[in-house]
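Researcher: Let's continue the batch. This sequence belongs to TSPO protein, and it's 167 residues. Same format as the previous ones, please.
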Amino acid sequence: QGRMWAYTVGFTVLPHVGGFLGWFMNRKEIPVWYEKLKKPSWCPSRKIFPVAWTVLYTGMGYASYLIWNDLGGCSGKAVVPLGLYGAQLALNWAWPPFFFGARNLKLALIDILCLDGLAIGTMCSWYRINKVAALLLVPYLGWLAMATCLTIRIWKDNPEQKPGKGE
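Model: Same format as before. Here are the structure tokens for TSPO protein:
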């Protein structure tokens, strides 16, 4: 019983690790660079992002535990559903360094478009295993849809400087 508690907490906390590291590594770029970007009027306030990601990472982390548990751990049956989850989580964690760290809007856009596909694939693969786990990803997919649209708008409205110009 105590061991299952540790697994539940571990799976639930895992997504927060990369999210926190992404924020920590790029936190100085947000007020300096991000605030100067042209953003659409519907862009959420910076204060919303940590709250949203805390809720989203907790839901997806717990959902991954449900899948892992239902499939009996890291069994052969778990390779695809948890592999998709791991791949989308890696792309999720890669977005802030691309966007804020490298200031590469095009690469961030490519990343989030691939992330969208993997997140949808994850939800579809999970639905057959555990409907609750799949439904826990719905808010995440909704947020990703907004984040994708926001990334597209920022990329289109803030053309990247050509080398040697404007610097």
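Researcher: Any comment?
Model: Residues 1-38+45-161 form a domain with the Ferritin fold (CATH 1.20.1260.100).
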